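Hey, can you fold this one?
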Amino acid sequence: MGQGRKAGRKGLAVMLVTVGVVASGCGTAGADRPLDSVTVTSSQFRDGAPLPREYACGSGNNPPLRWSNIPSTAKSIALVADTSSPKGSAVHWVVFNIDHRTTVLIENGVPQGARQGRGTGGKVGYDPPCRDGDSYRFSVYALDTRLDLGEGAGLTETLPAIANHTIARGRITATGIE
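Sure. Predicted structure:
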């Protein structure tokens, strides 16, 4: 089989894994065990409200988030920002190995010591959403371990690792863009 065809199949496999994981809210996180619920809020938008323009296409700024109800057994926190719609799914941001005592993500910031993975577009860091009619989920996962992954890890590594170690989760969803 030629190199181009191998690369095409690998790309298709990555896309299928990504779409499957995104569509299910980070894979099978907790499918075989009950999960605690994490409360996720933002000072800049309410659950179900539009995402403010300053956190959308062209800005590069992530919205501030706050979470609570993290189980005492958590060893780290992960955050995944994604969308899943009839127009297509995308992961806009993956942050992992956030200290389990952290409860706030500041605007345009990543907690000290945390690592960022690649999104659907291959970018490391927040890749602001652009499609106005979609819903954008900011999901927080409490994990039972720190992930043994490096900065810039791909979605085929980060999303299954998050799913396999989730002990609690919660999300805030922005519907559309202001």
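The first strand starts at residue 36 and ends at 37. Let me know if you want another pass with a different chain boundary.
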